[in-house]
Model the fold of this input.
Amino acid sequence: MKHLLSLEKLPRADFEKILRDAAVFKRERGQHTSQPLTGQTWALIFSKSSTRTRVSFEVGIRELGGESLFLSANDIQLGRGEPIKDTARVLGRMIHGAVIRTFAQSDVEEFAEFSKIPTINALTDDEHPCQVLTDIFTFEEMRGPVAGKVVTFIGDGACNMPVSWIFAAAKLGFELRIAAPKAFQPSTEILKRAGGKIIVSEDLQAAATGADMLYTDVWVSMGKEAEAAERIKVLSGYQINQKLVKLAKPGALVMHCLPAYRGKEIDTETFEANAGTIFTQAENRLHVQKAVLNWAVN
Ligand code: CP
Ligand code: NVA
Done:
């Protein structure tokens, strides 16, 4: 039984297989001969909003021959307090796989354990593995192997995106620099667990200098709305803009997982100058999701 719950637990060989297969799914879209989800119904159980993840999984499941059910957590009994492990034991008897977006990482882990069906983390407070797989796929599609390169993350360095980047860096052998205010830096416990070359500082200019990629994410992640004013105050300045891009390597990629808040984590000019990369990144969610689903059922 395969689950994609965290990049920390994804073996390197599986990571590389998903990246390789995504290229084939992209190249051969519309002409796949194998439909690995034929006869299967997958549920998407979402407790948070989503555009890219929801659509890429729904379309991906369909293109692989399966059916999908979108279950907003508030519309099922889970939202009224039915325990995860009961929901998991019910769904596990009816469906073939689950894609879950929620708050606590322990909830997706518990679902996987009790449902006994392939379970994919579609974002928790701790990790967003499908997004980072896609980001690396996109980088390699445009610039070749990420091993040995320098990726710089600017902004909320403690949220799900940088944490997934941290686990990917050690596994794939690139240098990761995280520039964030002290209060938004990743825990030393996570850094220790991941290993690899990860440099965390408050100095965004130093972090951007010579980088092959600059990456950012929202300052206020889903579920953190009550902290919005404080976050915007503390994180202001941790922005990708033209001045920062000039410090990176010539031709460096600028990426954003989206949704983007112009004037906050990225300025409008930089966003639009890099829209080609950013929307290719968004499109690639579909191809990578298909590779993840195919990996999960084989
Ligand atoms: N990047 C991402 O996961 O987008 P959604 O929240 O729209 O799914
Ligand atoms: N860190 C963001 C990612 C959105 C795709 C959030 O959790 O809201």
